[in-house]
């Protein structure tokens, strides 16, 4: 390892902390030799996989709580916040997602400068403290949940999500897609465990202690994460905010179309996560089934966090992204909209979880294919600003459509979701067409020159 790191001419990895991370390489000036060698990367081993374990636990305890918010939404509407509208309650959960994406460019720059030594511990403290404050919420005091679960927990997730994923790039190159897929699956597993745990604990110990138990569980996970997540590459020790966002990508029509498609798709993405359990209860589905719908949806998310990246490497990101978004559109309009019984609702939850989980990784992967490596992080950060806005207003808009819980308003919510997904799919197809036209133009230019 020492000898590999001392090679006179090598390619030096640049940390892109604010992404679903990829690692770029740039040539480092030095004494030229015949064949440059890549810098040593462990690509496995005890220490590398220990970091993966810590990052997985961090996402289990943070992103897992976002994926479990549908259970909180159901309880808040029925018991804790009966005087609040569905739109205002869903805003609590959407704030968490907003901070996750909006904070990405900033936490990425801090990660590049100082690693995980500050961000992960600070984010852990905020998340645990926020859940303890949630456990003290009084009935019909919605502002307490906005501040604790929405803002404070959202800030905690923003501080630790991107660094926990980005650090994997320090330890893996060839197996990076697999390692990052394992880490991202931690959030899906949390979305399985926490809804079930909450549903079982509330009748036994009440909401306050049920949330405290979850708070102690995530605290244990965060402690292990803080002890095991380590950076390996040299850190800059200098925060450069100028590289956090790059707007020059909007000169490329493919980048513009990808941003528009991302906005539309993420506007609708989380609506089923927040409302599927409420919809099942409205349809008279037994609590023995409806209480597990969110867990089923998140369980099917696990393979969709790992497989799409591998398929995209072989077939291309748009070749996987377009079918996934098209299938989600069909599922919403063709299965969720006409669903009346438990069987069709369960089938929708499982299939939507399977295909919608690909959105996050495939959007980032496509941006990487149309962006120079040296500005990839900043360009993705620019897209994430629009994604953050979409996630902030998406589920509250759906909640506003459901101001009365009846069939007409639920149909409006579902059709709204389906139309957004369909529009996003059409824009993705447009990006593919533009990309293919550019390829044909390049070929024509080469043939004309020859």
The unreliable regions are: 1-36
Mean pLDDT: 85
Q: What is the makeup of the main sheet?
A: 3 strands, mixed
What is Rg?
22 Å
Describe what you observe in this structure.
This protein has 450 residues and is mostly helical. It has one domain (14-444): Growth Hormone, Chain: A, CATH 1.20.1250.20. The protein is 73% helix and 2% strand. It has a three-stranded mixed beta sheet, with no helix packed on it. It starts with a helix and ends with a helix. It is found in: Membrane. Pfam families: MFS_1. InterPro entries: MFS (IPR011701), MFS_dom (IPR020846), MFS_trans_sf (IPR036259), Proton-linked_MCT (IPR050327).
Give a brief outline of the structure.
GO terms for molecular function: transmembrane transporter activity. Its main location: membrane. This protein is mainly alpha-helical and 450 residues long.
SSE diagram, text form:
Layout: H1 2-5, E1 10-14, E2 24-27, E3 37-38, H2 46-61, H3 63-67, H4 69-80, H5 86-102, H6 104-114, H7 119-134, H8 142-166, H9 176-228, H10 253-269, H11 271-282, H12 287-290, H13 293-315, H14 317-336, H15 342-356, H16 359-369, H17 376-401, H18 407-449
Helix pairs in contact: 2-8, 2-9, 4-5, 4-9, 4-11, 5-8, 5-17, 6-8, 7-8, 7-9, 9-13, 10-16, 10-17, 10-18, 13-14, 13-15, 13-16, 14-15, 14-16, 14-18
């Amino acid at each position: 390892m020492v000898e590999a790191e001392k090679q006179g001419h090598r390619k030096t990895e640049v940390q892109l902390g604010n992404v679903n991370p990829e690692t770029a390489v740039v040539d480092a000036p030095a004494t030229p030799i015949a064949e440059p060698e890549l810098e040593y990367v462990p690509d496995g081993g005890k220490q590398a996989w220990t970091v993966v374990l810590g990052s997985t636990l961090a996402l289990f305890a943070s992103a897992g709580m976002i994926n479990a918010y549908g259970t909180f939404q159901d309880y808040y509407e029925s018991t804790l916040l009966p005087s609040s509208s569905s739109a205002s309650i869903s805003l609590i959960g959407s704030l968490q997602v907003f901070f996750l994406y909006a904070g990405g460019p900033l936490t990425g720059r801090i990660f590049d400068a100082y690693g995980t030594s500050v961000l992960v511990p600070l984010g852990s403290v905020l998340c645990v403290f926020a859940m303890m404050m949630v456990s003290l919420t009084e009935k019909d005091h919605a502002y307490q949940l906005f501040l604790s679960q929405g803002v404070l927990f959202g800030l905690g997730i923003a501080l630790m999500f991107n660094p926990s994923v980005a650090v994997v790039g320090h330890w893996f190159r060839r197996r990076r897609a697999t390692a990052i897929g394992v880490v991202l699956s931690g959030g899906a597993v949390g979305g399985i465990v926490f809804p079930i745990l909450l549903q079982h604990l509330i009748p036994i110990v009440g909401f306050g202690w049920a949330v405290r138990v979850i708070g102690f569980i995530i605290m244990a996970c965060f402690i292990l994460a803080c002890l095991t997540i380590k950076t390996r590459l040299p850190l800059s020790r200098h925060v450069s905010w100028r590289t956090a966002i790059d707007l020059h990508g909007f000169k490329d029509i493919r980048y513009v179309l990808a941003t528009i498609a991302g906005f539309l798709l993420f506007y609708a993405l989380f609506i089923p996560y927040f409302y599927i359990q409420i919809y099942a209860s409205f349809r008279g589905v037994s609590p023995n089934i409806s209480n597990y719908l969110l867990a089923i949806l998140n369980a099917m998310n696990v393979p969709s966090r790992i497989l799409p990246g591998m398929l995209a490497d072989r077939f291309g990101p748009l070749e996987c992204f377009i079918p996934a978004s098209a299938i989600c559109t069909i599922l919403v309009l063709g299965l969720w909209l006409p669903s009346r019984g438990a069987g069709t609702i369960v089938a929708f939850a499982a299939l939507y979880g399977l295909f919608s989980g690909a959105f996050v990784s495939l959007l980032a992967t496509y941006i990487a294919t149309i962006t120079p490596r040296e500005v990839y992080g900043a360009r993705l950060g620019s897209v994430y600003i629009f994604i953050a806005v979409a996630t902030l207003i998406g589920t509250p808009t759906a909640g506003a459509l459901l101001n009365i819980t009846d069939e007409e308003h639920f149909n409006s919510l579902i059709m709204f979701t389906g139309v957004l997904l369909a529009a996003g799919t059409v824009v993705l197809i447009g990006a593919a067409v533009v990309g293919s036209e550019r390829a044909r133009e390049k070929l024509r230019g080469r043939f004309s020159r020859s």
